[in-house]
Amino acid sequence: MARYYGVIMSRKPGLAFGLLIAMVMLLAPALGCGDDAEGDGATNGNTTSTITDDGLDRSQPGRVSITDETGEKASSGDATAMLPSWLDISLVSIASGDGNLVFETTLTEPVPQTKPEVAIGVEWGFIIDTDSNGEPDYGLYAAYQTDTLTYGLFNPLGGERQADGEFPGSFTISGNTLSWTLQTDAIGQPESFQWVAYSDAAADSGGEQSHVVKSGDKVPSDGWPGAGWLPFP
After folding, report:
1. Which of 26, 31, 37, 155 could form a disulfide with 160 if both were Cys (CB 3.0 to 4.6 A apart)?
2. pTM tops 0.90
3. 24, containing H or E segment
4. In whole angstroms, what separates CA 1 from the centre of its chain?
């Protein structure tokens, strides 16, 4: 995760990668493994997401929504499994109004009420580029680094996080959907911006040569730190 966003900071050894794969298969039995499909079809490290033009909906003024392919495959090392449902993004939307921006991420199953035991850390969020220079300026996150979910703003390049209690807005979870309501002046009141949504998790591979195993999803799948961003509005 730090390679993408610098946001999962706490890592504890001792979790076996075999447990991660077992949990992946347990939590997503109803999902079919997605083949490479039409659309952007770009490989995102260990995962592949697909967005087609039909998935982009700007029917409401000040609102953008994206439907993302579900059931992608996640791979790490020599092992391949389906993306855990609690990382698998199915819908992303951003809406503006009344001096606020509302960012929503919908997963293919309800958001975990506590950190999955197999994971060192789990995170969902958005990366925002407010000056369209291709580099991120702000980030929104909700994360399990411990059993307590935290949320707020962070610096995607430096990793610095705003204290949870200082978040300029509100955060809610409803079933499968995480929702951040952010005051627009907290990010400079941009009239438009570029964005990427993400999910991210890590586990320890275990064994004598223990290393961190990562898995996640992005919308768009070739988004930052690659070249792909989506515009708002």
Report:
1. 155
2. no
3. helix 17-27
4. 10
Return all residues near 113 (Cβ < 8 A) that are at least 6 apart: none
Torsion of CA 9, 10, 12, 15, to 10 degrees: -70
> What residues does each domain of the chain span?
17-29+38-232
146-161 pLDDT tens trace: 888 999 999 998 888 8
| Residue among 131, 145, 136 at smallest CA distance from 192 | 131
Mean pLDDT over the full length of the chain: 75
Residue 174, both tokens: 């409803």
CB 127 within 8 A of CB 180: no
Q: Are 64 and 57 in contact (CB under 8 A)?
A: yes
3-state SS of 155-176? CCCCCCECCHHHCCEEEEEECC
CA distance linking residue 24 with residue 225, whole number of Å: 25
Q: Tokens 């997963």 appear where?
A: 107
Number of residues in the chain: 233
